[in-house]
Specification:
This protein is an alpha/beta fold. The protein has 9 helices and 13 strands. It is globular, with a radius of gyration of 21 Å. The two termini are 30 Å apart.
Length: 300
Amino acid sequence: MSSKIRQRIKAFQEEKKNRGRLLIDCPDQPGIVAAVSQFLFEQGANIIESSQYSTNPEGGRFFMRIVFECDHLKAKSKEIEAAFEATIAHQFSMDWDFTYVFDIKKMAIFVSKELHCLLELLWEWQNGDLMTDIALVISNHEDAREHVEPLGIPFYYIPANKDIRAEVEKKQLQLLEEYDVDFIVLARYMQILTPDFVAKHPNRIINIHHSFLPAFVGAKPYERAYERGVKLIGATSHYVTNDLDEGPIIEQDIHRVDHRDNVEDLKKIGRSIERSVFARAVKWHLEDRILVHRNKTIVF
């Protein structure tokens, strides 16, 4: 990456060196918020943001996201996690995760010929609105290279089709391991991933689909929307599962169209929706705002 972006990331890490986040998923019962707040207080932490949601106060699931500040957090993090696991987490049967804002997530971008979602992410990243390390870009076409390499981001051209999918994914997985990637975004990467690939990255692959799901799953959604005469088109960003375009939805948006709009008009309008929806979903993932429950998401 460029020296300017590298310096910005280092400045951000220094500024946020004492900031952490705690995500919680557990059976709902009285006393959870009080117990977690008391625990953080005893660790010398100050809560600066807290959000919670219950699916059903009686017998449901409870979800919580807390942002806190704590002096010398990096040095104390393992001690805090161990104490939390032994006390609060055990008491309330919690699935939980501490994350640290200074620990910048590494992202891999997969892209094909349609570049608008990739370019949106690159712009947001250069502008400082996506605080991430874009570790590499992988594409089955060469079109994106000229936009990626000048920014100091490694670009890998790996031709792909259904006949060589296993070989392609082996190369991709090797690169993801080599670059120590935390999550993957599919910026209009027009290839279906195998179950083995998806299983290695549960809830860590974000896709953008060019329709308002569950309408028009799969290929050519704008063409099918035009044939159906829809009055609204949209885009959906979701986590990838083995069911095509049916993973947990992170974000969606729509735009009104009418009988005057042909297929190309729909595509042009849709690209704008795709860019904004995708960027928001990626940003929320980076900020640890998303909890997955079954095939749904809670976004704080």
